[in-house]
Amino acid sequence: xxxxGIPCEACGSTGTAAxxxxxxxxxxxxxxxxxxxxxxxxxxxxxxxxxxxAACARHGNWPRAGGILDQTQSxxxxxxxxxxxxxxxxxxxxxxx
Length: 97
Ligand SMILES: [Zn+2]
Prior knowledge:
Blueprint: E1 2-7, E2 32-34, H1 45-58, H2 73-96
Antiparallel strand pairs: 1-2
Helix pairs in contact: 1-2
The structure holds zinc ion.
């Protein structure tokens, strides 16, 4: 699976192999990262839980009872980080349509 919008780390998103010897062997010149196994295996359980909490928090359902002031600082930070990444992805996706 090609991960459009995520740069290939092997070639620095140039699409060429180191030293200019043909296409990058990691992305085959597409300049984006590839995923060769189940995406769930790339993300650990804590990250999946953070994404789930962030999705619930978007609808006002925070991990702990109460509002944002009742949450731990680390929970608020990770939820805001997930929202930031999701929002940036949505903007990027909308720009490509
Ligand atoms: Zn590459």
